Amino acid sequence: MQDKRGHGARNEQVFLKMQEYDSWSIMSKKDISNLAISLLWYTHLVLVFGVNIRTRGCCIWKRYQYYRLAVAAANLSIKPSQN
Question: Residue 63 has what DSSP assignment?
């Protein structure tokens, strides 16, 4: 071990701090539960918004097709007759 001004003492402090946690994990149980809850929350958000965007995107695409059809029909009816 080096003197107190070197890195040896700090490394020993870090080692003692790591021994406070469980031996099988560096993270504490609270950290693991928070991580699990956040992962579940994010997957829920991704699933909900992914499905909504997919179905709404299809709906928007159909509306766009109807809009194009209506614009084409309006353009045909607005065009002046070329006599």
Answer: H
Q: Can you tell me which residue has the tokens 């045909």?
A: 76
Q: Judge whether 83 lies within some domain.
A: no
CB contact set of 26 (below 8 Å; sequence gap of 6+) = 18
In a domain, 1, yes or no: no
Q: 0.70 cut: is pTM over it? A: no
* Domain total in the chain: 1
* Coil vs helix vs strand at 9: helix
Taking only the tens place, the pLDDT of each residue in 21-57 is 555 556 677 777 888 888 888 888 887 777 766 666 6
